[in-house]
Task: structure prediction
Amino acid sequence: MTPTSTPLPPHAPARAHAPAQAPINAAGHAPVHATAQAPVHAPGHAPVADENPGTPNGTPVPVGLRLTGRRVVCVGGGPVSARRTRALLDGGAEVHVVAPELCEDLAEHARAGRVTWHSRGYEPADLDGAWFVHTATGDRATDSRVAADAEQRRVWCVDATDAAASSAWFPAVARVDDVSVAVTAGGDPRRAARLRDAVATALDTGSLPLRRHRPGPGRVDLVGGGPGDPGLLTTRARRLLAQADVVVHDTLAPTSVLDELDPDVELVDVGKTAGHHPVPQHEINLFLVEHARRGRRVVRLKGGDPFVLGRGGEELLACREAGVTVAVTPGVTSAVSVPAALGIPVTHRGVSRSFTVLSAHEDLRAGQVPTEGTLVLLMGVSGLAATADRLVALGWSATTPAAVLEDGFGERQRRVVGTLADIAGRAEQAGVRPPGIVVVGEVVALAPAMQPDPVVLVAHGSRDPRSRAVTDGLAAALGERLGTEVVVSQLDHAGPRPQEAVDALAARGHRTVRVQPLLFTPAYHVTVDLPEALASCAATADGADVHVQGPLVGHPALLDALDRRLAETDLPDGVRPTALVMASAGTSSAPARAELEQTAAAWGERHGLPAVSAYASAAEPTPGQAVAALVAQGHSVAVGGLFVGPGYLPDKARAQALAAGAVVVAEPVGVAPELVQVLADRCAAPVGPAPHTGPSAA
Result:
C-alpha cells in the first residue's frame, strides 16, 4: 500500500475532511511523514505559487516517506532533535545523531542502541548515504550549512532554524487507530500543532468520516451506550460508531446517535422490552460472528455497560470461540447513573458504604442478597410487589426506604418514593411502567436534599413568540444554575397554566415544587390569579407541597439589569441622559405602584439623576407622559424597561417614549444575566408562601 499524507491547508477549518492515511511498514511501525503544505483551491481555479506563507519557491507537495531501514541523520542533540528522533524511530528509520552532547532522552536512545551517536560536530560526510536529514543545532550558520550540503546531495532536509528555506517539513500528526492525518501550516509549528489537536479531537469523537472503503479484517466491538443520553456516550464509543459498517442495538441504547451515521450503515434492532424478546440471544451471537467474518466492522451498541447485566460476556465468548476479533468499550451503567440523576447516591458516608446490583428477574435467594447497604435492582418494575415481599422475607425491614426510578434519562424520567411496605402500591397508583430501576436502602431518604426542588416560572402570558423565547431561555439558564428542572407556565394566553405545570411535575414523582412568579410586583396576578390557579392543583390534594416565592421587585440586581440593558443601547454622539424613566406594565394596586416608584427612585439615586416610574397600562403617568414632562424641564431622557421580554406592552411603552422625545429606550431586562441571579436567589430562599397574600384593589 502506498502511503499518503493529506495535511490541512493553512486556512482550512480544523474539522475539514481529509483522506485517511495509515500504512504500516514491515517492522510494524507507522511511517514518518515529511510533508509539505498543499492549499485547497476551488474547482476551476489554478493555485497561486506563493499562496502559502514562507514558501517562496512554490507550493509544496504533500508526501509520505517510508524510511524503514534507511539511514536518517539528525544533527543536534537537544530536545527538538529528541522529539524528531522518536518519530523517526517509530517509522523504523536507522537514525544517526551527530552532536557533541546529547539531552537525556537522546542519551537514553543511544545507551539502548536505538540510535547511533557520533560524538562530535557536524561534517559533510555525515550525509553520505542518507535518505533524509534533520538539523536543529540551535546555531543558524551550522543548520544552514547542513541544509546546503543536503541540497547539493539531493537529500530532503528539515531545517528547524529556518522553516521557510527547508526542502521538507515535519508535520504535526494526529493518529487514531489506523488513521493518521498530517498537518503543516506554512512553517508555523505551533499553528500546525493546534490544528493537529483539533483534528485529533474530531477523529476521537467520530466527527470525521472514519469508515473504511476498502476491504479489511472484520471485528466486533461491544459498546456500552450508557443510560440513553447521547451526552453520556464515551469518546471511544462515538469513534467506533463512526467506523462501523453494522450496528446491532438495543432499545435502551442512545439510538438518536444512529441518525448521524452514513445512510448505508446497516442498523439492526434486537431490542428487548418487558415480556417481548424478538431476537433470541444465540441468534444475536451468530449475527455478530457472521458479519465480522465477512470483513465488516460490527458495533454491538448496548444500553448501560455491556458487562452489567447486559449479557455482553456471552457475546464476547461467542466471538472468541469463533475466532473473531472482539473488544469491549465500557459504558456508564444505569445502576449508578439513573439514581444519581434522580438525587439518590448509591453510597453516602455515614449512610451506606456499599451497593449491590441484582437482576430482579432472577430468583432472590438467602445468602445471595445482602440485608445492608444499598440494593439496586435492574428490570425491577414488572414484579415489584413480589420483589418487595421477598426482600422483607429475607430480612429487610418493611420500613426501609425504597424508590422506583422510571425511564432514567428519558422523557418519562421520574422518581416514586416509598418504603418496601408500600412502594409497589405507590408505583401502581402513579402508573409506573418499564423501563425502571428499584433502589432500596437508607440512601433513598437523601433524595430531597440531593436533588433541588423543580421550579415553575409563572409569566403573565403573551402570544408573542419573542416573549416565550425569552422566558424559555430564562428557564434554561435558571435550571443550569440551580441544577434542577425549570418549566415555564403562563397565567393568560398560551399554556401550560401554573396548576397544569405543577401537576405534571408531581405526576413525575416530585413531592415538592417551587413556584416563582416572573412578575415584578405584588399586584393582582400574584395575589389573586396565581393563588386561585394553584388552588385547583390535583397535586396538593394528593399531598404534594407547593411553595410560592415572592415577586422580583426589591432585589438590587434588578438595577444592575436595567443598567446593563441601558449600556447596550446606542446613544447619539455627544448625548448624555440627564433623567431616567423606568417603564413597566402597570398595575392598579397602590402598594405595587409604591414599590415600583421606590425602585425607580433607587435607580436614579444610583446615577445621581432624577428618575420616575411610568406604566404602559392601568396607571399613570404613561411612558409618553413621563418623558414629555422631563423633556419640558430640559432633560435628555433615557428609558429602561422593567419588562421580562418583548411584547405588546413593551412595544407600546417604547413607541410612546420615543414619540415624546426620549433619546434612547433600552430593551426589556429578560435577557440580562442579572435577572437569572434574581430568580436564583428567590428560589434558594427558604420555602414559604409569597409575602403578599391578600388581593389588591382591581
Remarks:
- The first helix runs from residue 79 to 90.
- Residues 1-210 form a domain with the Rossmann fold fold (CATH 3.40.50.720).
- Residues 1-56, 688-698 have pLDDT under 50 and may be disordered.
